[in-house]
Write a structure and sequence with these properties.
171 residues; five-stranded mixed beta sheet; 6 helices
Length: 171
């Protein structure tokens, strides 16, 4: 049978009393110490859930977009494929670490100037490298900006897991 849950505005002590006297709880947990532990754990779950709901609600009120919210969270990754500009897998990194999705960063020793972690169409987190490390970016000159965007076909940059998307976004 299901374990009772705290009501919306019920304080912890009243819920524990109600939970301890529940026939379902008495039947499933005859030992009173175990029943108390289960009831208190239910209050903690409710507190954590309500705290998460408050954080999500405040974030959504401020930004009103789910996609932006999930872009800023960090993700644990196991295997990362490093993809070059042609979309080919160059190397695989096998390590568990936390990365921030959709936020480009400079690569000091990398094969390219910038990198970004994104989720590909299969849902895997991949590292996308883009930009020539030996060239200076001169996007403030309108003729160069126009030429670059035409050359890279930035009207349709493609999916997020391709380097062209991020190069066009930075220009």
């Amino acid at each position: 049978m299901p374990i009772p849950n705290p009501n919306q505005n019920e304080d912890k002590q009243k819920f524990v009393e109600r939970c301890m006297s529940s026939e379902v709880m008495k039947k499933d947990y005859p030992d009173s110490k175990q029943r108390v532990a289960v009831c208190y754990s239910q209050t903690k779950r409710k507190e954590n859930a309500s705290l998460l709901d408050e954080v999500l609600d405040s974030y959504l009120a401020a930004n009103c977009c789910w996609d932006d919210m999930w872009d800023e969270f960090t993700w644990d990754i196991d295997v990362t494929n490093v993809i070059d500009e042609d979309g080919k897998i160059v190397a695989e990194e096998s390590s568990k670490r936390r990365v921030t999705l959709n936020k480009p960063f400079r690569t000091p020793d990398g094969p390219k100037k910038f990198s970004v972690y994104v989720k590909n169409d299969k849902g895997n987190v991949v590292k996308v490298n883009f930009g020539d490390p030996n060239m200076e970016i001169k996007r403030d000159i309108p003729a160069r900006r126009k030429s670059f965007r035409a050359r890279m076909r930035c009207d349709d940059p493609g999916p997020k897991w391709k380097s062209r998307y991020w190069a066009c976004k930075s220009w």
